[in-house]
Every structure is written in structure tokens, then in C-alpha cells.
Write a structure and sequence with these properties.
Blueprint lengths: L7 H6 E3 L5 E3 L13 H7 L3 E2 L2 H11 L2
Antiparallel strand pairs: 1-2, 2-3
Length: about 60
């Protein structure tokens, strides 16, 4: 049987924590930050865990 391939895009965007949760970056901090408040940009820089439904899809993409 051939090797299972991971999705390269998913590999770059998601991390798996020690407990097995999937973590991702928040959207909306790449540009146009001038008018966003400091509080908002600070919170956008934090990582967030994926929900259970999405996590199962990402696990399949990562080959876990």
C-alpha cells in the first residue's frame, strides 16, 4: 500500500498540542491594522483551538 500523504497547506497552518488538540492562528491580523484597536490586535495574535467538528477534518488532512 502507498504511503499516506499529508496536505501541505494544513501542515503549515495547524499544530497539534501535547494533549492532542488542534491549534490555529486567528484571521484578520495580516494587514489594515492601523484602525484596529491594540486590544483587538493583541487578541488576534493568540492561537485558538479548533472546534470538535473541524478538528476531525483537520486530523484527516494531517494524517493523524
Amino acid at each position: 500500500m502507498p504511503k499516506m500523504k499529508t496536505r501541505a497547506g494544513a501542515k503549515k497552518r495547524f499544530k497539534v498540542t501535547g494533549t492532542g488538540k488542534i491549534v490555529h492562528r486567528r484571521a484578520g491580523k495580516a494587514h489594515l491594522n492601523e484602525h484596529k484597536s491594540s486590544r483587538r490586535t493583541r487578541r488576534l495574535s493568540l492561537d485558538k483551538t479548533l472546534g470538535q467538528a473541524d478538528a476531525s477534518k483537520v486530523r484527516r488532512m494531517l494524517g493523524i
